[in-house]
Design brief:
The chain has 111 residues and is of the alpha/beta class. 32% of the residues lie in helices and 21% in strands. It has a five-stranded mixed sheet with strand order 1-3-2-4-5, sandwiched between helices. It is globular.
């Protein structure tokens, strides 16, 4: 029963499949003036915590899931300096030059 409830939880996480999707996601964030929360992970499953965060902060933060299992996403991993384990990066809404300087990351354990 618990697993059913977790699986049917609403999710506003956008899945990124390549640079084109990522550019569309960044354009959407720029258009609405919202910060981006990027979840980099090794597998394609969206964590339940991310589903919750995407629902709780809907229309205040855009949440994206970027899977390393897709070859198209490797350039995005290199762009943000992600290697290996899961990482959550929050990019405030700024100009492109300031983006890397104001990047906030979390690479700790969830439990």
């Amino acid at each position: 029963m618990k697993q059913f409830a977790l699986d049917s939880m609403p999710s506003f996480v956008e899945r990124i499949s390549g640079l084109e999707d990522f550019e569309k996601f960044k354009a959407k964030a720029t258009k609405y003036g919202l910060p981006m929360m990027l979840l980099f992970s090794e597998n394609r499953l969206v964590l339940n915590e991310m589903k919750y965060l995407s629902t709780e902060f809907r229309r205040r933060v855009l949440v994206a899931h970027i899977s390393q299992s897709k070859k198209e996403n490797r350039n995005i991993f290199f762009q943000y300096g992600v290697r290996g384990q899961a990482l959550v990066a929050t990019v405030p809404h700024t100009d492109d030059d300031e983006e890397k300087q104001s990047l906030v990351t979390f690479d700790g354990k969830w439990n």
